[in-house]
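Workshop exercise sheet. Pairs work together: one partner reads the sequence aloud, the other fills in the structure field after running the prediction. Swap roles for the next sheet.
Pair: D.N. / O.F.
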Amino acid sequence: MQNEPSQTPRLDAWSRYFARMLDVLVFSLLVGIVAAVAGTLAAPEATDEVIAVMDSSRLWTMVADLASFVIALPLIAMSLVLGQTPGKWLFGIRVRGPQGDKLRLSSALHRELLVWARGLALGLPLLSFVTLVMSYARLTEDGATAWDRRVGSQVSHVERTPAWWLKAVPAATFVVALILWNAFAGLFVSA
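Structure field:
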């Protein structure tokens, strides 16, 4: 059984980062699979052409990554409304509304848009690094991120038990491996 999050806020920026990246990866992958299957069923030749263009250009791959992330935003928000996202569950993070209740859909969507814009700088590689550092500084100094303050959400974390570590370490390793693979895959693939 999952430990209940503690009522005292604990600043845990790295858990939040890994949970966010895992959610982005999971939901973007789901969007990509659905798009590929739908495209193959509806227009196989056009889908093959799109995949060929993406394979030939790193720029188009980045555009597709950004598009799938934008499409995944509502899915992440819906997961928050229902309770937790996969990443937040693995890292024992719970996001609640101002009174400790589940987030409303409008608040969850607003929060996700703010995370995307202010926390991840719309996914732009160098700029997102800067905004992540700024968000980390704000969280450690003020105890909350700009998006949580804006929508009034409360973030809590479970205790770090051995069971937490057994879930969190492999999940964080998976996220790091995928980020590195995505960053360096183009260097090692022959054209």
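Discussion prompt: The chain is about 75% helix and 5% strand. What would you look at next?
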